[in-house]
Automatic annotation (TrEMBL):
It comes from Mycobacterium yunnanensis. Pathway: Cofactor biosynthesis; riboflavin biosynthesis. InterPro entries: DHFR-like_dom_sf, RibDG_C, Riboflavin_Biosynth_HTPR. Keywords: NADP, Oxidoreductase. This is Pyrimidine reductase family protein. NCBIfam families: PRK14059.1-1, PRK14059.1-2, PRK14059.1-4. GO terms for molecular function: 5-amino-6-(5-phosphoribosylamino)uracil reductase activity. Residues 44-255 form the Bacterial bifunctional deaminase-reductase C-terminal domain. One of its GO terms (biological process) is riboflavin biosynthetic process. Coiled coil: none annotated. It comes from the Bacteria.
Length: 267
């Protein structure tokens, strides 16, 4: 017999069963699930990550190994909604990132919302050490933003020229990127709908500084074992209360969750 305290025993639980109605990803409801708040006067930072059932952020070293068709559809939808796609340097190298790709219909929809046709990729890096022939420079319509620290800016601008726009995002320390300054700089450019696609170090940085407004986490029906990293891994800890916004699933057994930061004091 397991003894539980009275408050725990009184907790109300809800079974999430097959009670909802299915829908096609193109019928407009998916867009409603992943639209950003309106009339933003600051950056709203959404993270989109995927995890295995046992908490791994990668399968065979890459997050793409965990993805399925539904996850890729939602990944595409979130990119379509964003003003800018924020990603860490290690993820760019490991996943071989290129620029965002948008269909004609997606471009028109973005134009109707007052957005650019294609969102830029903003790469957060202290060293800006990338090969010139990397896809982030060669397979893109929009030059990436290289978001780096003050000490690296002159060399990076000389190295990349017109193939990238180098952005100084240092705060009080010239040898590192300041996450708050980074978001202020993006907001000044009108890039307020921010989509962060990781990796774990960048998600941890945003979490530690209480800059993450929401987390969209896909849970893949896969066990990976081993030493796979978590979706956030850093030196500092945080305790940020989140509330569930929605939970979707598909025939493959994937769970698509969206959690938004609680208002101060809760709701």
């Amino acid at each position: 017999m397991v003894n539980v305290s009275d408050p725990d025993a009184a907790t109300e639980l809800t079974e999430l069963g097959p009670l909802g109605t299915g829908f096609d990803g193109d019928d407009g409801r998916l867009a409603a699930f992943y639209s950003y708040p309106r009339n933003l006067d600051r950056c709203w930072v959404r993270a989109n990550m995927i995890s295995s059932l046992d908490g791994g952020a990668t399968d065979d070293g890459k997050s793409g190994g965990l993805a399925g068709p539904g996850d890729r559809a939602i990944f595409s939808r979130m990119r379509q909604e964003a003003d800018v796609i924020l990603v860490g340097a290690s993820t760019v190298r490991i996943e071989n990132y290129s620029g965002a790709q948008m269909s004609l219909a997606e471009r028109r929809e973005r134009q109707d919302r007052g957005q650019s046709e294609v969102p830029p990729i903003a790469v957060v890096t202290h060293s800006a050490d990338f090969d010139h022939d990397a896809l982030i420079f060669t397979r893109t319509e929009v030059p990436p933003l290289i978001v780096t620290c003050h000490e690296t800016v002159p060399e990076a601008r000389s190295r990349f020229g017109s193939s990238a726009e180098v952005v100084d995002a240092s705060g009080p320390y010239p040898d590192r990127v300041d996450a708050g300054v980074m978001l202020e700089t993006l907001a000044e450019r009108g890039l307020r709908r921010v989509l962060s696609e990781g990796g774990p170090s960048l998600i941890s940085l945003l979490t530690e500084h209480d800059l993450l407004d929401e987390l969209c986490l896909t849970i893949a029906p896969v066990l990976v074992g081993g030493a796979a990293r978590r979706i956030a891994s850093g030196s500092a800890e945080a305790h940020t209360r989140m509330r569930r916004s929605h939970l979707l699933t598909d025939d493959e057994g994937y769970l698509y969750t969206r959690y938004v930061k609680d208002a101060p004091g809760g709701e």
